[in-house]
Amino acid sequence: MKQAVEALIKEVKKESQQIVDYCHKKEFISSAFDSPHIFFASATEQDLEKNIKKLRARYGIYLFVMNTDLNISKQQIMEWNKIEGGLINIVGNIKDIAAKANSCFYIGSCYQHSLMTRIREHFSEKKGPASLKLNNNKRCWIKNSLSVYCFPIKKTFTKEQNRIILPAIEKELHTELKAIAGSSRV
What we know:
With 186 residues, this protein is α+β, with helices and mostly antiparallel strands. The protein has helices at 2-23, 45-53, 74-80, 115-123, 159-177, and strands spanning 37-40, 60-66, 70-72, 97-99, 104-110, 146-152.
């Protein structure tokens, strides 16, 4: 059993590194995930829906990644954090954040709901406590600076395997990428 767990940990780290490397514009070669789907958060609602529908009945990992450098002011952080869900992480006193292009804004995994459902929730104005609520008027200012990277897990994995693999990879990505918003719940 110990060897099986060690082998799983090694694979989780390898797959996590593949995602990190891909976000930094390197080649993506994965034994666990199909080709990534990428789209701009600032897309029109119609284009966004077209991209999201490709992720119906697919589970996996998703990241919101900065596509430009952006200074997030102390005031913007305070306004953002007044709304439940996807809070901007603060260590110590609130101060401006100089977010760089290709830095990770938010990381998530979905193994109970599809990628399509979770991404829709993040663009909703009012959905759930674990949602970015990017269409909320106090948060929509960031949409032009974000791209969404979705990594659908191969369909050969069972739901039970997804429940083990995806949170483990999400946790590893949180450790590696240190997202600006959200927290590692796993």
